[in-house]
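User: I'm putting together notes for a lab meeting next week and I want to include a structural view of one of the chains we've been expressing. I don't have a solved structure, so I'd like a prediction I can at least talk through. The sequence is below, exactly as it appears in our construct file.
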Amino acid sequence: MRADGRGAHEPRPIDCETSVNRYAEGSCIFSMGQTRVHCTASVSDDVPRWRKESGAGWVTAEYRMLPRSTDTRTRREGDRLKGRTAEIQRLVGRSLRAAVNLEALGPRVITIDCDVLQADGGTRTASVNGGFVALVLALQGLVESGALPALPLVNRVVAMSVGVVNGEAVADLAYVEDVSAEVDMNLVMTGAGDWIEVQGTAEGSPFSPAQLQAMLDAGQASLGAVVDAQTQALGGLDLP
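Assistant: Thanks for the context. Below is the predicted structure for the 240-residue chain, given as structure tokens.
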């Protein structure tokens, strides 16, 4: 039994509130337990120079933790990002590019900004999940305005943290579990359960192939709750 009474494959309560930013083309606050991330999607025609000749678009991301997202205040990060922050925002960007047909998007950039309002483990996976919702809302706006003929989506993108805690593979680690986990892993998947990214580290002893498979199984078993939250937030749009 886990500290909060959840089953091994049971994620924390998930909630997604959309249209929380009146200026952004897409926005939401995505919550997984006590972790809450404010995600916005901004559309621009300022395509990177190396991308201009292709006629295709780009999806990128930025990630920050706000000063009081944790139990003590941390300083804001400037342009020189900490290694962890840079790694997470690259993960979010890579993950969300897997959702979009960049050629069909055309010569425009969508920037996903993920700002952690409150952290209790799983901030990067909540950022991917909320970032996908904000991205789809921005794309839907382009369709409704006539800028795109159809949603250029090729995959739904969902993410889940997993790990080994007290010898058991579990999904959606809260902070109290994350700090004591024997293995910490972040999974990014399509809605069908195919892998986009697998990012894992042994915190002590190496983990076995059987433990790896158990963590992958935990991630796939728990993704339905994320899919349901995204679908509800997006008003039942027909997504991949």
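A couple of points you could mention at the meeting. The chain has a mean pLDDT of 94. The chain has one domain: 14-71+82-233.

User: Perfect, that's what I needed.
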